[in-house]
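In this supplementary section we document a worked example of the pipeline. Step one takes a protein sequence of length 329 as its only input; no multiple sequence alignment statistics are reported here. Step two produces a three-dimensional model, which step three serialises into structure tokens for compact storage. The input and output of this example are shown verbatim.
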Amino acid sequence: MHDAPRASRGSVGLSAHGIAARPAETRLTERAVDFLSNGSADAKALIEHVCQMPGAPVVVAEAMALALFAQRPEFVRSHDGRWSLALEPRTQALRPTVAVEAVREDRSSYDASVERDELASLSYVVVDVETTGMSPWSGDRITEIAAIVVRDGVVAERFATLVNPERSIPPMITNLTQINWEMVKDAPRFRDICEQVVSVLEGHVFVAHNADFDWRFVTAEVQRATGQRLSGRRLCTVRLARRVLPQLRSRRLDSVANYYGVEILARHRAAGDAVATAHVLLRLLDEARERECRSWDDLERLLGESMAKGPRSRGELAMPRPVDKDTTA
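The serialised model returned by step three reads:
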């Protein structure tokens, strides 16, 4: 399902508000960010700390620093050879949470930066994936993906495709999703559509019903295909429903959609669930506005904690679990 073809954009830079792909961080870059967060340093001090190489020769340290960090946007090297963190939002992408622009408490000082942060001015990409199981780091893969772009209060773009997971589909998954091997054997592999998927996601707030699940799988597939990782703002409609619809006993997609009179045309299929979630999102944002949520900062306060959590450790993701229930909550 494609509303319109999209031009290839290649490598993606970090959007101020939305999802972007960037080189995956390593332990060395994490250590460098931590070290340089205290101030700039010359190459010798940086490499001695990051690589645990006390007494590293200056020439060797310079060469290693250039090789490790020169192509990474998080770091800058001054004319005198000192390294520091780039003074850009992308610097924060290596932190445990994705950076979120602050909105001034004093509404009388309303300016362009606040206007850019208004919920009404943001665009959203509602994502749903069907998979072979629960854990992308234990061999489970995507079998179907849909991404619905919501802009100016309406569905603006639609993308959906079956995906060849390059592994078998357990019978219990086929029973849940009705997706079998015959349906996906000739479908594109994720690496074949990865550039298009990233292009659809770029610049939008990532939204899903039970967003951690979809985010883990999409980011794992993108990293597997390109070596890059996704970063940016995320919003879970399950969490938002808990805040604005406390009267509902269940926040499963069926329950919330039924409450708003939204029809799910194909339950447990990516496109059907994503389109329904997109319409649910619009209603939930209206509910949030009734609670004086006008900016992303307001929304975070409503939810009570950051919605842009960093990736869980692979140790947490590595425990395989069977799927015998609805993973879309």
